[in-house]
Each structure stands twice: as C-alpha cells, then as structure tokens.
Design goal:
This is Class I SAM-dependent methyltransferase. With about 220 residues, the chain is an alpha/beta fold. It has a single domain, classed as Rossmann fold (3-Layer(aba) Sandwich). Helices cover about 25% and strands about 30% of the residues. Strands 1, 2, 3, 4, 5, 6, 7 and 8 form an 8-stranded mixed β-sheet that branches. Helix 4 links the parallel strand 2 and strand 3. The N terminus is likely disordered.
Length: about 220
Amino acid sequence: MSISEHRHHQAEDVDPAEYWERRYQERQRVWSGRANPVLVDVVEPLPAGTALDLGCGEGADAVWLARRGWRVTAADVAATALERASGHAGEAGVADRIDFQRHDLARTLPDGPFDLVSAQFFQSNVELPRERILRAVAEQVAPGGLLLVVTHATVPPWSWHPHEDAVPTPEEELAALGLALDEWHTERLDAPARQVTGPDGRTATVTDNVIALRRRAR
C-alpha cells in the first residue's frame, strides 16, 4: 500500500498551490529553519555537485547544500515559501548558488540531470501523485548520483497529519516506487527513530522511512 493511500481528512479537491499558500500565510515561519538531519547525515560526506530539493519549503535544506558548495535547484508550489526561501538564501550569502523554481510538481518538474535528488518528507495533506513524481525525478538522477527519499513513518500526537493506520515499511515504500532496481545500488533502507519536541514542550519518539539509492554508472 502506498503512502498516499494513508492520508486522512484530505481536502482532495483543493488546489495544491492554494492550500499551501494558505498554510504558509497562516504563520511567519512553518518549519524550523534547520536542515533535515537525515540529509545532513547522508550528504555531508559527499563531494558537491548539482542537487534538486523537491518541495523545498522555506529553504533550509537548499541553503545547507549551497553552503557546502552544491548548485541547487529548489522547487515548491507555494510562492510564499519560495519568497521566504530566497530571503533565507540571501541572508546566508548563497543566493547565487540556488535556483528557486515554482512548480506544481504533479504537472511540471525542473530539468536535470542532478547528482542528488532529495525528497525530504515529500508528503501532502492534499491530493499528490507522490509515487509518480518520485519515479519521474528518479529518472533525472545522473549516473553515479543519489536519490534520497525520507518519509514520516510515524508522527507525534500533535501533528497536523496523524497516521491512524499502519504505514508502509521502507521496503514496501521502495517497492511502490516501481524503480528498475538493477539500475540502482541501495545504500540505505531503514527506519531510524528520533526524538522531537512539540510547540508546547512535549516530547515524543517518531520514526522516518529512509531510502538512499545510488544510480549505477551506465
């Protein structure tokens, strides 16, 4: 069963750009401003190249990559998120290393190839053809490049997107992507746990599905 089949209370008829614009405009900052920890762990040892940050939000991952020498294409559907991300990049002195692009990823995608495609928590509370998009961006990973997909496997009690049913294992999620696995080397496939702190100071343990695939040289 795919991740997208585990959505609850979804406004399936809502336009994604409209939904995410509204969500970003509700608060001055939606995300922490820190790079996602799995991205840091996996990518920090790698030589810099070209990267695609899929669903870049307010730009923390794109800025982290750019500070380490990556040339980043950062894509999101929400203009407000991209404006904040661009401002963050400017403050960090890396605006010239990031190309921010607005895309409804169900319809258009940035052009590759890329040495890294990063999809950090690429999940949505509105209709999203997630597996189809991930298959499409996987095709844009250059030979020798890395596809990194990190997904909420469990979420804390205060989350805006609770999972009440079982969710796929990393192995099931990888199978749902439908990739030709003989073209890829699996570098990481696991579900690590981490501690998170909620807005009221409560703590909880959550797990994330992690898929890291290296494209074999052709």
